Amino acid sequence: MRRISVFSAARGVAALICFTFVTLFTTPLPLQAAQLVDKVVAVVNNEIITLSELNEEGKTVFKRIAATTPANQLEDTLMHAREDILDSLIDKRLIAQKAAENHIRVADSEVDAALDSTIRRNGITKEMLLVKLAEAGLDEATYRSTLRSQILQSKLVGAEVHSKIVITEDMIQEHYREQYTSKIANGAYYLLQMGFSWETPDGGDQSSATLYANKADALKRAERIHKLVVAGQDFGALAQKYSDLPSAEDGGDLGTFLLDDMASDMRSAVAELNNGEVSEIIETHSGYQFFKVLSAGEDALVEKASYESVREEIRSALFEVEAERTYEKWVKELKDKAYIQKL
Predict the structure, then answer these.
(1) In what order do the strands lie in the sheet with 40-44?
(2) What is the pTM assigned to this prediction?
């Protein structure tokens, strides 16, 4: 999440605070240090954030920085971490205030459900979770507090941001045209490819029997997948799963070719095919291949996937982009309307 920092502090004060971060985790706190911990570091509307809250929120990060950062970089690294964590605390405080204003609450039962969900999702027991928390310097109460904040933020953002986002059919169709279709020139062929290679040894000769067995296996695989494609199964999904060629990563998508630019074996396989047809299996120098023609010999739009098959995927992607943009705008407006002072 993009943060808007208004932090400003004198170098001497920064050094003192950084020193406090380190000593907090290495020596017991004398009375004077304990008083410093409770210093106010920020005011958010009518509420304050104290240094003890900041240290508690960032203690795991500060410990890690103190243990891994070279001494000549420690001060700056701690100061940047302090800024980020203080910004995060300010955001949380603003969200909590806005939630209270909107009468949004989080019941203990919701926190219990979130905790149980975390345990189930990670396949662990509660005891194992508590051990992991302890290793990170946290306890159950702190973790439950974090879950409560996350649920509260989710509820508030849902009401203030997500509920106001509308993804129209026109937006989905425009994205589909831009990302899932392409125009090909007259006389070009838009091709999908699948290939099944036989194994060859690294150096040395291969016996005829071994070569024959490897070729027979490759042909058997090619014939099995070819039948699935001809029967109507998705070429791209099958290519990603079974093809041995580099194009498999893109679902066998080779793009467009003119007949004159094709290798002779490819040209002979696809020259007489119409749109949507699948070629016969051909043998190359290292395997077997076949092709599907998405568009041929005409000025047309090629659909890389059907609209209905990707419609919901597009809607979700557009929603995520719009949600992030709207959320950043909402947080900025929340901050602009608030009284925030960092000390």
Answers:
(1) 47-50, 40-44, 340-342
(2) 0.52
